[in-house]
Amino acid sequence: MPTAPPLLELQQAITDYLDADSWFDSIGILNESHGDLERNTDILISKLGVGVVVQIPTAEVNFPDLPSIYFDQVPIIISCYAHTELNKVSNQGTGIHPFNTAQIVAALLHQWRIEALADADGNMPMLIAAPKTIVPVTDELKDGVIGWDVYFICNLGFRYTPERSLADNDNNAILTNAGIEIDVN
Fold it and tell me: Which of 35, 55, 56, 139 is such that its CA lies 20 to 30 A from the CA of 11?
């Protein structure tokens, strides 16, 4: 079975790492690849009063001449939200301000070496807090919801060659991707 593309693996590794920390026992964590993010975030915040979203990392390619794509300087954004009224309700909310959660995210992930994503030579990607680490969410949010974004850069790039090949069998073009052959004639 093919592995997930490296940016999705990075996102999942961050989600799992935060979820394993006891600070997040009462705080829901989503990652952006979980379907309808806006709806899921609304549900999470309406149930718990607070939530964290690990967004899909973006990437830059600064070495376009390499034989396979090399994603480097990978920016990562983690959003911490709370509904100001629901989060105060003792039987529903946590009382945890999203700015405090953002500070915990920054402290936990800064200089975190991601062993699960080490390459064959043992090089591990590391997250570094961006110069502007914690920033208020400026996107339009639902009434009563406030948020803080936490910015990181992954300092070790990812080389990525999808599992695919093109073959010409008796002039029939066949595309193989993840072990599935498709006749493209």
Answer: 139
Pair 42, 128: CB distance under 8 Å: no
Query: What is the number of other CB atoms lying within 10 angstroms of the CB of residue 6?
Result: 20
138-157: b (≥16 Cβ within 10 Å) or e? eeeeeeebbbbbbbbbbebb
Q: What is the pLDDT of residues 111-168, one digit of tens each?
A: 999 998 887 788 888 999 999 999 999 887 778 888 999 999 997 666 666 665 444 4
- What are the boundaries of each domain within the chain? 6-183
Tokens at residue 171, please? 């002039």
* CATH for 6-183, options being 3.40.50.10840, 3.40.50.720, 3.40.140.10, 3.30.2000.10: 3.30.2000.10
pTM value is 0.78
* Rounded distance between C-alpha atoms, residue 157 and residue 165, angstroms: 24
Q: 10-61, pLDDT tens digit by residue?
A: 999 999 999 999 988 888 898 876 566 777 777 777 777 888 999 988 888 7
Indicate the residue type of 169.
N
